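# nightly structure sweep
# worker-07 picked up a monomer target from the shared queue
# config: single-sequence mode, recycle default, output format = structure tokens
# input follows
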Amino acid sequence: MVSERVERHPILDVPAHPETVEFSFDGRSLRARKSEVISSALFANGVHVFGHHRRDGSPQGIFCANGQCAQCLVLADGLPVKACVTPVRPDMTVRSIEGLPPLPPDDVPLHLRREIPRVETDVLIVGGGPAGLVAAAELGAHDVPSILCDDKQVLGGKLSLQTHNFFGSVDDCYAGVRGTEIGKILEQQARSRRSVELWTESPVVGVFQDGVVGVVKQGHFTTIRAKSMLVAAGAREKALAFVGADLPGVYGAGAFQTLVNRDLVKPARRLFIVGGGNVGLIVAYQALQAGIDVVGLAEMLPECGGYKVHRDKILRLGVPVFTSHTVLRAEGDGRVERVVIARVDARFQPIPGTERTFEVDTVLIAVGLSSVNELAEEGRRLGMRVYSAGDAHEIAEASAAMFSGKIVAREILRDLGKDVEIPADWVTIQAMLRSHPGPVLGYYPPPSEMAVYPILRCSQEIPCNPCTDVCITDGIAIPEGNLLGRPKLVGDCVGCLKCVAICPGLAISLVDRRHDPTQQTARVTVPWEMPEELVHVGDPVPTTGNEGEPVGTGKVLRILAGKSLNRRRLLVLEVPWQDAEKVAGVRVRTPEAPVEVASVGPVADDEVIICRCERVTKEMIEQYLEASGSRDFNAIKAALRTGMGPCGGKTCAELTLRLFREMGIDPKSVTPPSLRPFSQEVPMKAFLVEGDDADRV
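# output follows
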């Protein structure tokens, strides 16, 4: 039987003997890990196609892995459910949906609850990610009654998927600590506050005219009336419209992180990433950690938008980065088998004749995030006291979200009449944490006259200071005097390796020339977070420079590990004397030459799906706009059903707005879609109870 599990991981704990349950899919008997969701269990058993669409029979598979769409719809014990948020139960019967799901049998009396429960509180916090948890702890520290609602089983938001050490400030936002650990720390802080209630598996689904907020609390519809509402619901991934974007195997980078880092499923063997922001660069690295080959990464801009240290570390490992390139199409019979990219010109249009193809089974889309702010906007429209924090307010790093939650909590406290201060330096630090990567200025040259010294390859203005904090001789400083500056060795070095071990960007190596008086060889220690089986003591390894350029060959002398390294290991390499300052890493894969193909010709608009739920193409929308002259989202919705599917327009609305711009239509002239409760599907059973004492429907 096919098993696609992550069996070993350099950072995450992989259970040796996890408890499993039996279930079936389309008559096949399969096994799932206890409490994992259906989609992850199916992927782990090699199933990537979950059914076929009712309109055109197109194969359906996972897309968001976050409950936002319905690409993963299956029948579970006779009921249609989203596979990505529905846990497997023992002996569950799961079937693919071919067309429309059948109605369940009308054999059980249904009863409506006499009264929907209502809860009163001072503050309702929507979202249990970094911003929401920090805000809850801050409000709880001042004994303010608060309820935090989150739709997941585990709190922490995207922190639960972040295996890397965080950037930022050590003192203010846990820089140098892994995101998975930060999430647990923040949850513990929030749980320690007696005035704070934490509701998991409780999505907030609507804000109503009377100021009441609807919540599906663990399957039962409940309402909350709060004096203030803080929306910290995070962000959702942006999509791209290209030929084949709807094939199983094309999905968001965040969905990939959910499968790999949360559920320990290996959903791909060879993948290609579209988007060179921090998310795309980080996911490329995390895929390699899970033993998945990353064939390449394409970024439309001339430079990647993410941190240079993130880009450099995947280049050193052997992942090619194609800047000024875009994806043209994904191809395959029923699921992804290859991807075609092309170089773009100054107007970001594909250049004919530059097409290249790669054989892959997965294409990850990492082209940015959009704030989940619908509840906040609706609440403000209704005159409620509404605040926003984290990505729901402004897209930034999780470290910035923590500060955002803290500051907004103080604003709420003030509005509730509490005498609290918002220190000026909080606002300054938050601004630095929110800042985009600055210019690449180069790193400070190493002091080659010393016998042992670090190479601090942080050459870009990004908010980070762990290396200055851990240096036991206080020998590392930031001459610019702020969190965005570049570190520089200004004092002694004793070779303690603490800076190498903590650097979030893996941008520090240590040169040690004390071991060979003949000056033939030197020792270089580099950070290492790849699978153990890739290198062994005594192995010759190909060494690479800062941006992946080949340097030569080194010999692995030691592999350092220990609790103080926070699951990072350090490779001690013996290299030629003259290579010591050049060596920044070890290559784990050899970049392969892409296959150049004949021009694929212009993209046919009838092949490009805009609305995945209703299978509405780019051509259909263009023809309607040209024929009707309409500039109203709602007219397109009425005419073509765009946005009428289960996702409620969460994906296609942005793609349609982009289409308006492509057609030369001023976005300011476009009437936006009307957003009404519910913001996501609410099953009828959430309003029902069993028993003869309730009002019969």
